[in-house]
Amino acid sequence: MYVTIISTTSIAFLACSEEIEDAPKTETNDTSNEESVTDQVEEVDSTVQCNQEVDLGLPSGTIWAGWNVGASAPEELGNYYAWGETKIKEDYTLETYIHYSKDDSCYLSLDTCIIDTIIIDGAPDSCVFDTTYYAFNPMCDVALQEWEENWSIPTKADFEELITVCTWHWIKYKGANGYKIVGPNGNAIFLPAAGYRSGKSLLDSGDGGNYWTKSNHEITDYIAWGFGFSKQHYDISESCYRIAGHSIRPVKQIITTE
């Protein structure tokens, strides 16, 4: 038996709630259940795929990576990135976030990407923010930039599919806490509880995980959609602050020709 945590201040979601004062309160979709979340502990699990490409048998055909960006094995934590940034750094704050205009006091849309203060694909539109949609520039996609070959940061829909069609098991895999996610075909990936970076600190490593999607928030410019979990809960979160350092687990679409 476990207790589902729905507060955005729970362990797994601290990175999505404490960065900015007076943040809006949001509800989470509690899709976990006792059948899909277990307390089993496994040091070695042959169903966890140790390949870079893992086919979980998902209806969409999406292929998930076997490890995080910056890692080389499922149990390794990998790197942490602020939303839309492609470089790791020592300090994850508003002052170091390259997609924030200090002159205009606003967050920039990622249809324009800024790499090392160099503007790519035109100039940013200052504080113009499209609340319905804006593109995520491929130059801002660290999965594509680091791995190439059609890898990308997952969308909100990619994580929603994992939640809906896979079974989830909290385990210890080769010394790392996290979730084993078993697809319809029996193959599995492991998401380590890598925690998150805020300021110069690494927080909640071993207790919770925070992973970025590339889906922007539809209303508010300083947050983006993310995915967070603890032992008691896993869900999509809409209140993840873009300045926080989260993990990246890439996906890719296999294009077949008939």
Secondary structure elements and their pairing?
Blueprint: E1 53-55, E2 62-65, E3 100-101, E4 106-107, E5 113-115, E6 118-120, H1 142-147, H2 156-165, E7 167-173, E8 176-182, E9 188-192, E10 196-198, E11 201-203, E12 208-216, E13 223-230, E14 233-241, E15 251-253
Antiparallel strand pairs: 1-2, 2-15, 3-4, 5-6, 7-8, 8-9, 10-11, 12-13, 13-14
Mean pLDDT: 78
Structural class: mainly beta
Residue ranges: pLDDT <50 for 5 or more in a row? 1-14, 17-36, 114-133
The sequence of SSEs as H and E is EEEEEEHHEEEEEEEEE
Radius of gyration: 18 Å
Q: How many helices?
A: 2
Query: Which strands sit side by side, in order, in the main sheet?
Result: 1-2-15
Q: What's the assembly state of these chains?
A: single chain
Shape: globular
Report the biggest beta sheet as strand number plus sense, adding barrel if it closes: 3 strands, antiparallel
Kindly state the number of beta strands.
15
Classify the beta-strand content into a percent band.
25-35%
- Please report the distance between the alpha carbons of the first and last residues: 48 Å
The residue fraction in helices comes out at under 10%
